[in-house]
Amino acid sequence: xxxxxxxxxxxFDLDDTLYEYTPCDRAGRRALFSFANEELGVKSPAFxxxxxxxxxxxxxxxxxxxxxxxxxxxxxxxxELIGLRSEPHIALVMEQEYWRNYLLAMTLRPGVVDxxxxxxxxxxxxxxxxxxxxQIQFRKLHHLDLSKSIDHVVCSEETRGEKRSxxxxxxxxxxxxxxxxxxxxxxxxxxxxxxxxxxxAEGLVRAGRGFVHEATPDGxxxxxxxxREIEQAVDEAVGGAA
Amino acid sequence: MTLRSIRVPTGxxxxxxxxxxxxxxxxxxxxxxxxxxxPFFDHAVSQPSWDPWQSYLDAxxxxxxxxxxxxxxxxxxxxxxxxxxxxxPWRLQAGLAVALLLIELTVWWLLARWHPRRVRRVVGLxxxxxxxxxxxxxxxxxxxxxxxxxxxxxxxxxxxxxxxxGILAGLAIAAKVSSVLLAPLVLVFLWRNARFRSHLxxxxxxxxxxxxxxxxxxxxPRYRDMVLLNATSQSALTYVMDLGPGLSxxxxxxxxxxxxxxxxxxxxxxxxxTVLLITLALAAVPLLTPASPGWYLWSLPLLTVLAAVxxxxxxxxxxxxxxxxxxxLALRASGAMWRSDGTGRADGSFAEAGPFxxxxxxxxxxxxxxxxxxxxxxxxxxxRSVREQHDRYRLSQAPLAVxxxxxxxxxxxxxxxxxxxxxxxxxxxxLMGDDYHLYDRSAPLWSVTTxxxxxxxxxxxxxxxxxxxxxxxxxWGKHYDHSRGRFTKQRxxxxxxxxxxxxxxxxxxxxxxxxxxxxVYTSMEERLRxxxxxxxxxxxxxxxxxxxxxxxxxxxxxxxxxxxPQEALADVAFRLEPVVPLxxxxxxxxxxxxxxxxxxxxxLSFAESLTRELIAxxxxxxxxxxxxxxxxxxxxxxxxxxxxxxxxxxxxxxIDRREELFVENSTWHGDSRGVMQLIVVLALxxxxxxxxxx
Lengths: 242, 694
Description:
The structure holds two protein chains of two kinds.
Chain A: E1 9-12, H1 21-39, H2 44-62, H3 71-81, H4 88-104, H5 112-121, E2 125-130, H6 134-143, E3 152-155, H7 167-175, E4 184-187, H8 196-202, E5 208-212, E6 221-223, H9 227-241
Parallel strand pairs in A: 1-2, 1-4, 2-3, 4-5, 5-6
Chain B: H1 10-27, E1 28-30, H2 31-46, H3 52-58, H4 70-82, H5 93-114, H6 119-127, H7 130-138, H8 144-158, H9 162-175, H10 182-192, H11 200-215, H12 221-228, H13 231-234, E2 240-244, E3 247-250, H14 251-265, H15 271-287, H16 293-298, H17 300-307, H18 312-332, E4 336-338, H19 362-390, E5 400-406, H20 412-423, E6 428-432, H21 459-470, E7 475-477, E8 480-481, E9 486-487, E10 491-493, E11 498-503, H22 510-515, E12 518-524, H23 526-540, H24 545-563, E13 572-578, E14 595-602, H25 607-616, E15 621-626, E16 632-638, H26 644-654, H27 658-661, H28 671-690
Parallel strand pairs in B: 5-11, 5-12, 6-11, 12-13
Antiparallel strand pairs in B: 1-4, 2-3, 7-10, 8-9, 13-14, 14-16, 15-16
């Protein structure tokens, strides 16, 4: 484990990190399936199955690309699968149905606002690096009222690969001042949200720490359950540095 | 670590509560059960009869033994009978104790349903209530059953399940007649509030089974003696104020009637406010009578749920009230005997007042006084806090009121209809400016003036009627029938939850602007307004284009002099603009024009959150321009993508306590109508929430 010091930049993942993903996705899907039932007359189990197959097909075709998460493409493919051929208007309406209900179910995890305020107070820069298309990720950030609390946002749609490929992180560090790479902390839910060693090996980051839900054994990354734990780590690091 | 930071899991709270109760019921046998209830059930089990009250008294039983109705008999009779095989002192009594525990656990479950996000707080408060333990397991009262039924009835009332609420209230009466305190408060609420009046029948029908179970057995004389005319219930009339020789006032009925009057006064109340009044009434009973310990239980779950949202001070006071009541009762009321003392049967000298009562001296009076003082302060605190939260928009004091002015053809009527779509037609009163024109369409005067001139309208009458409606009084007035160009005979405009004053000159009176919660001005980009008028009058009504243009032009001087100045007086000024400039040449243009909404807001703070949600949830383009006059801003929205479901979603997200406002299913619109609905409703509610002068 590195010596504790104040971070220069904290890079957050968005989905399932700053808010809990599952209830939002559940709300979105419920609305989508209800729409299919009421407006298209396709009963829920049949449409759920079509949606699931469509999702798999889109992901298989696109691989690690931001558009592989596109609900518009899932709906479009599902409509094809249930025999309605291409219905762009319905696909758009269904996509909005999903995202509207998803967004309405979103609430920040307890402690996020305090953590961001602590970082801002200590002059620590913040960024969100996230997989998915920019339009919806920006809508999420805006809905959560985080737009003004985050210094940089990178969506995987802006690059050729997703976070697993490190491309979005490379883009982030191409946009930030070199001094910010001194000690970078990563907060996410999955291991690829905190590629501390890989970015250090590339020389993009000089030192760093990661916080993910399931810690990996590389020594730079530790687990977290509550946002408060990260704020405590920041307090300790900033206090130690002082 | 501070005390506040200690987080005890809900399961642990429940476990402690249950453990305490189990230990108490294992350790002691309540005297009242041993002497009254168990012998009654013993007789009922050993000599079953259709009239157990008669049968018991014929066998020489005490007429005070079971002053309860058939529901109580059934619910406690079955577990008592199931434990009839046990040895003394468990025989029959164990069934009563276990039934009480199960009923109390049901109350805890209902508490968790009431406040799903505050389960630990509500269950913890109830579980650690000393009066609950003392009343049911030490003193042995069976009131937890009517308490549970009344609480379930209140929960159904809150959830707008009228018939279920009535059924449970009826069953509570059938369990214990004193539960009758609840129903009149609900009936007054339903009868008095126009929005809810249609549910009165459902509630009354719900009451029928319980009332039948209470009244039908009244043909049995011993039932009447034991249940309806028992000495305990008559103690409700004990506390009197002596006003001189032969003249005294019984306190409890006076206070109860005052609470009923309060319910009557809350003309636009809601079920939550009624629950608050029910709690007041039930909590007032033990404060204003020499109450049995069981009577303190009636308000216990309701006080718990209200205290849970009333702040730490209120919760401490509620608990202190229960603790003082327990201490006071434990000293003066009968108690329990140790189970290990043998049969647990008391001798025949039992009385509800315990052995200490004569030896208390000043202590008893001090404790009783402290209970009443703390209880009264607690009720005031809870009432103020809950009233503030559950009557957020203070509809019970005055209707919401909005005044909408603007030139004709700028969307005033559409906006009015859109507001009625949200609040419900039955909850909206319209005062239309056109009804105050001085002349009908055939009057020759219109050749020299227009409706826009104040002199062509009875504005003083309009102001008088608007003020009356806004004060919650109905008005009578003629109506201008646009299809015939004539006035109808007078009709009554009912006072309702939302008053909309709509007219060319609706903002011209300072009194109206001051009395209304919100003033709105509507306008339209001039070419767009002309285009829409030409589309309607030339395209649909077949008038000549030149005539229509002339009629528009003729109105300009009066519009500039008398209508447009109102814009500067409005809290919200709308302007609809075409997204793409319209052509210079005027003709019928059937293609719909895509518009954007520009709203000029004065001293209103919701714009930022609304803009955020229009962008995030509605997918609209929206932004705010801050103007150089303090507190003024301009909100610009391109609503073409906004669907009714988006508008409803945004409203759902931004409006607190919607259930207080919207009784029927609200209809939200998409596009510019939806944006205008959101802006007016949010502005109206913000103004009402912050307003203290009405």
